[in-house]
From TrEMBL:
Gene3D superfamilies: HUPs
Key words, A-Z: Membrane, Transmembrane, Transmembrane helix
Native source species: Pelomonas candidula
InterPro entries per UniProt: Cell_Envelope_Assoc, DUF218, Rossmann-like_a/b/a_fold
Protein name: YdcF family protein
Chain segments annotated as transmembrane: 12-33, 45-65
Residue intervals of the DUF218 domain: 90-257
Length: 263
């Protein structure tokens, strides 16, 4: 009898152990154990772990980590306006997850990440005059999802924004498949320039995957990042733990791990 390897379960467990706050809690436990045993360094380890737990939930740490990873440049509104009139371009939004059931609506909806990308993608499409596309299927760990992200988002775009999707690619399970599955569709439609919409933390990995597929097809890809913070807009509150800060730090760490894993 052979046992099938549960990739999604393994990935979920591995991420839980590597993403904040798990490493800090393990360091705190180790430091506490050493301190209790009277071994050297236990107090320093425990103090460092507590400081890192605090920082890992702040906007400041998220911004530092994001800049260290290499933030993409802002796409300015004037640059978007300059694209109007070019007939061989498209705006492509990458999926970031959906909520399988939203009781107040009675059906599946885009989650916060996908919703933010989608709002910007619709704005870009209207301002540039370029058609809108979306790429997102059922991710490796989305075991409870029975509809692709693309099919759910197509309905959201039509009902909420009154704009149909020109392309809705729903077979991709990760960023590499987003590029491999979507770019041939766009090339076949005569698209030669793409505004790629995703969060700034994810943009480096997305650009690596898309440029590898786009160059042989003669397509240029331009980043259109979501979630950038204004320059120099750090306040005292940004040093304090917050839900937004914690989510951002985890997102940057996740994307860094995914970059090195090549996914």
């Amino acid at each position: 009898m052979s046992l099938a390897f549960d990739y999604s379960g393994f990935k979920t467990l591995l991420l839980a152990a590597m993403l904040p706050p798990a490493p800090m809690l393990l360091l705190a436990a180790w430091g506490g154990w050493r301190l209790k045993r009277g071994r050297r360094g236990g107090g320093w380890m425990l103090g460092m772990a507590l400081a890192l737990v605090w920082l890992s939930a702040t906007e400041v740490a998220g911004e530092w980590l994001s800049r260290a990873a290499g933030q993409p440049p802002l796409l300015k509104p004037a640059e978007v306006d300059a694209l109007r009139g070019q007939g061989d371009g498209a705006v492509l939004v990458l999926g970031g997850g959906v909520r399988r059931q939203v009781p107040e609506f009675g059906y599946a909806r885009a989650n916060e990440i996908t919703g933010e990308r989608l709002a910007y993608g619709v704005w870009l499409a209207r301002r540039s005059g370029w058609p809108l596309g979306f790429s997102g299927g059922i991710g490796w760990t989305a075991t409870d999802l029975h509809q692709s992200e693309a099919s759910i988002v197509a309905r959201v775009v039509a009902t909420d924004y009154g704009m149909p999707l020109r392309w809705a690619e729903g077979q991709s399970r990760d960023t590499r498949e987003n590029a491999a599955n979507t770019l041939p569709l766009l090339a076949k439609a005569g698209v030669r320039h793409i505004l790629l919409v995703t969060h700034e933390e994810h943009m480096g990995r997305a650009m690596r995957a898309f440029e590898a597929e786009a160059v042989p097809l003669g397509i240029s890809v331009r980043p259109a990042p979501v979630g950038l913070r204004p320059e120099g807009a750090i306040s005292f509150d940004d040093w304090c733990p917050s839900t937004g800060g914690f989510e951002r730090v985890r997102y940057v760490v996740y994307e860094t791990l995914a970059w090195w894993a090549g996914r």
